């Protein structure tokens, strides 16, 4: 697991996802026309030979680059890396990047590109995965793997079109989403209108901010768990042995990687002065030192696993084997 330092000059990047018709283009138009002081470059991916999203985006000073003839998560992933490579050669022209995926995209390969591609790893950092959910019509697509994975991967979720549903329906939707993703920030919106500080520059993916876990979300009575996609949250005090942790995580992704959409955590590892943060997507793992522990701060290990058919007791047991001193 790599423990390299962060390049402060890297360009923050938001990956925007959501099922077809949820409101991604509406959010893009809002971002492009709002007064936020950022110079934004946008990569738009439209599945099919003729793209239409670029025609729907209002005129703006930002540059919009369009990718066609395939889905960003598979056949044109090389095009994404090529476009990013060309963009960084003139990075003085923009200071923020938004990548919009097609509504049929699995976000995982896009996220993995930030780990495994040298150019993207060196010049960009993934600020957050933002998922737009259609509060009225998501029910028709709830069982689709694409819709589930988009929700499960999200750092920020916009429940859009909330004016079209009743409060009880909205509450049920939030509870179901919480069963799948216990840590994403959820915002209710109409026409994707919200303060853009809740969407851009939130630093949710790279864990520069500590994980924020509402204890209510951990209450088994607070929500219904989706039968296949769910979150497992582990909170435990104690010093973690780095070698044991590395061994366990690599064994875990070898055995269960395809089912683990995302994992991330903050750890008190080897009694170091700085917390250790890690994150993973399927088979890809990355970790590095985080901010120093404050004097007198309670050193609590916090881990989140989001995926399909997760075994909570198996994860708890595996992590408990990683402590320097055995835990109860």
Automatic annotation (TrEMBL):
It catalyses: GTP + H2O = GDP + phosphate + H(+). It holds the Pfam family CobW_C. Gene3D superfamilies: CobW-like, C-terminal domain, P-loop containing nucleotide triphosphate hydrolases. Residues 229-323 form the CobW C-terminal domain. One of its GO terms (cellular component) is cytoplasm. GO terms for molecular function: hydrolase activity; nucleotide binding. The keyword Oxidoreductase does not apply. Keywords: Chaperone, Hydrolase, Nucleotide-binding. Belongs to the SIMIBI class G3E GTPase family. ZNG1 subfamily. This is Cobalamin synthesis protein/P47K family protein. It comes from Limnospira indica PCC 8005.
């Amino acid at each position: 697991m790599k423990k390299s330092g962060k390049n402060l000059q890297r360009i923050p990047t938001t990956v925007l996802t959501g099922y077809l018709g949820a409101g991604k283009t509406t959010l893009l138009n809002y971002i492009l026309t709002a007064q936020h002081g950022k110079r934004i470059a946008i990569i738009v991916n439209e599945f099919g030979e003729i793209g239409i999203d670029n025609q729907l985006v209002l005129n703006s000073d930002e540059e919009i680059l369009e990718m066609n003839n395939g889905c960003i998560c598979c056949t044109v992933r090389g095009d994404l890396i090529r476009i990013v490579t060309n963009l960084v050669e003139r990075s003085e022209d923009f200071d923020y990047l938004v990548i919009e995926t097609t509504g049929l995209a699995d976000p995982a390969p896009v996220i993995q590109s930030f780990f495994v591609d040298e150019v993207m790893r060196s010049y960009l950092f993934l600020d957050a995965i933002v998922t737009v959910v259609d509060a009225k019509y998501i029910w028709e697509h709830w069982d689709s793997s694409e819709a589930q994975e988009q929700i499960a991967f999200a750092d920020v979720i916009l429940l859009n079109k909330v004016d079209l549903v009743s409060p009880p329906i909205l509450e049920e939707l939030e509870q179901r989403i919480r069963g799948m993703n216990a840590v994403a920030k959820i915002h209710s919106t109409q026409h994707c209108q919200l303060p853009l500080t809740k969407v851009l520059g939130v630093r949710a993916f790279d864990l520069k901010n500590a994980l924020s876990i509402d204890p209510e979300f951990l209450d088994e009575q607070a929500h219904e768990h989706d039968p296949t996609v769910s979150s497992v949250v582990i909170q435990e005090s104690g010093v973690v042995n780095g070698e044991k942790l590395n061994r366990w995580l690599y064994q875990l992704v070898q055995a269960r990687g395809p089912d683990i959409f995302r994992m991330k955590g903050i750890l008190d590892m080897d009694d170091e002065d700085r917390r250790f943060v890690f994150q993973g997507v399927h088979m890809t793992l990355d970790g590095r030192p985080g901010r120093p522990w404050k004097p007198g701060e309670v050193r609590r290990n916090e881990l989140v696993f989001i995926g399909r058919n997760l075994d909570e007791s198996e994860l708890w047991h595996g992590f408990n084997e990683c402590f320097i001193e055995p835990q109860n």
